[in-house]
Amino acid sequence: MSARSWRRRSAAFALPVVLASGCLLVAPPEDLPALGAGGSGAQGGGGSAGSSVVETGGSGASVTAGGDAGGETNPEGGGPGSGGNAGAAGSGEAGAGGSSAVGGSAGGGGTGGTGGSGQPMGGAGEGGAPECTTNQECVDLTHVEARCRNDHTCVTLKSPECLTVYGPFGDPNALYIGSFAVLDPENPGASDIALAEKLAVNEINAAGGLPGGPDGGRPLVLIVCTNDETAETGAISLGMTHLAEEVEVPALIAMLQPDDLTKAFEQEPDKKLFFLNPVATIRALTNHTYNRGLLWTLLGQPSDYAPAYGLLLGDLEKQVHSERGLSTTDKIKVAVVDTTDSFSADLYLYMFQSLEFNGTKAGNQEPDYFQEFSLDPAAAVPEKTITDLAAFEPDVVISAAGDVMTALGGVLPRLEAGWTSTKPRPYYLLSPYNATSDAKGTIQGVVTDEVNAMTNPEPDAARRFLGVNAAPALDLTLENAFEKRYYDAFTDQKPPAAANTDNYYDAVYYLAYAMYAGDSMTGPGIARGMKRLVSGDSLDDGPADDAISKVFTALDANNASDSLSLNTTLGPSDVFDPMTGVRPVTPGVYCFTLNGGLTLRANELRYDPTDNAFTGTYHCLDNFPPP
Fold it and tell me: Can you list the domains of the chain with their CATH numbers?
């Protein structure tokens, strides 16, 4: 298992416009005319004789040839339109009258020259006739991924922000759920997080989906939206609107940074959606009064990671003293880079309390030996920050930040490029945010670039880069099996990246089982279903040994007292706090070796809170930590 993904990339998508009569198609505002008030439709214009063409959109019909339309378009509804004027004499039947958008009465047919009289179409009366009755009808009509909502309205499943759909979307028993994730704008379906979620969806559907459908199982359909706002301001909000108001999902897997997650969670309060956060959270989101049990988290919170920072800094202090021949009275310099976003602020708060070097706590250090550099995560890193940091000549740089630390133009590459001191370059103690990809690639690529860019390359420069992240499960059986299935399923994807996506794979299983175990297909019902997955006998996720069927059997929908502890690639679920919805994590250490090529060693050490020590063998430095 690798350090898990925390990143976002840009995405853009253009949805084709589909205009057709007989079904209302809900699409983005720029693609279709705005709808009138619900329940009442436009007056239809009368058709014309001969070759008239009738188009339908969000409002009533309009005549484009063969005579003038009768009546006016009225999006609030109203009476029938009058017939159109006759066109030029000719053969053929008269054009049909316009159809209503949502309700209202249809316009009458025009009077033909030599053609017959037109026939009214569209539903008459308040509310109008049903626009669709099956999902497949909407798919056939739109020629894209679509569903028929309970109000008999066709909606497309993709949008400019929601780029990927997995699962049998036309199935009459389909269950639709949403996701926010890192998506490659050029090939969103091949993004590593999306593929991990796809694998889980495919496995559950191959086993029959969720039991209880009217004609068998209920398959999952997952709509994946981009979590990046750097290319489109408001992308997350628009994605939420699409998922909550148009597709009407009851739940979603929300890989969002905490500030974005807070906004998304608060955007649709009346919908009471269930949010499963596959990464880490902040303390403000764990309050049960605030989240009402509708927000659960898989990778803990900053306080979980803080002890590993303190222990690692102590080990690095020994390392600096040992390799540089310093005496026990010589002091080291430590710099911390953080940002104003809520996760970084939380992480710095807890981590700061654990930092101790030069024989005292960080809070007692003189400015000559400890400095904090706090940045705006949405802005470019100021040149003054790099200049001041270089002038400080730190021995260790600690990151409580995200992209501003490792992205192109971030602190790490610019400090490395501008290092002119005769003093040895610093060690970098990186954060969970830095553990995987950023806008230019993976952390492995970032470190490789820095090693290759050095004017006078160090023999083993990679040893200076290490970081803190969530440690894997103690038993790696399920994780190893997941990675094998991932690579077997997606051998055509370049490069496959199973090792940092198992939390997203687990999230699909958690959500599917919670939907089945809940007492209603609503956010609160699904939340009650989650509580049935965190205590009791242990059962595995994944498809091996008929595990999916065994879990559904154990979660008898007719007996809400049945519960289990779902064993996942992350480990057992009985560690969840059902009041906060947080699954705490054990921190671990990742690092890099340079042996003919850079290797990311994602699970090098594991923190033992009982002894306040790391377990495992560290391969990235000889004899580390020093005695």
Answer: 30-130 (no CATH), 302-472+585-615 (3.40.50.2300)
* DSSP code for 534: B
CB 201 within 8 A of CB 543: no
Torsion sign, CA atoms 10, 16, 19, 22 = negative
Whole-model pTM: value is: 0.77
Which contacts qualify for 243-247: CB closer than 8 Å, 24 or more apart? 243/162, 243/178, 244/268, 244/271, 244/273, 245/271, 246/26, 246/155, 246/156, 246/159, 247/147, 247/155, 247/157, 247/176, 247/178, 247/223
Residue 308 and residue 589 in contact, taking contact as beta carbons nearer than 8 Å:
yes
At 124, the amino acid letter reads A
Q: What is the pLDDT of residue 375?
A: 96
Half-sphere exposure of 213 (CA within 13 A, CB side): 15
Residue 609 near residue 307 (C-beta atoms within 8 A): yes
Reported as a single tens digit per residue, the pLDDT across 472-500 is 999 999 999 999 999 999 988 766 666 67
Torsion over CA: 378, 380, 386, 388 (sign): negative
Are 319 and 326 in contact, with CB atoms under 8 Å apart?
Answer: no
Separation of alpha carbons 224 and 229, rounded Å? 15
Question: Measured between alpha carbons, how far is 164 from 158 in angstroms, rounded to an integer?
Answer: 7
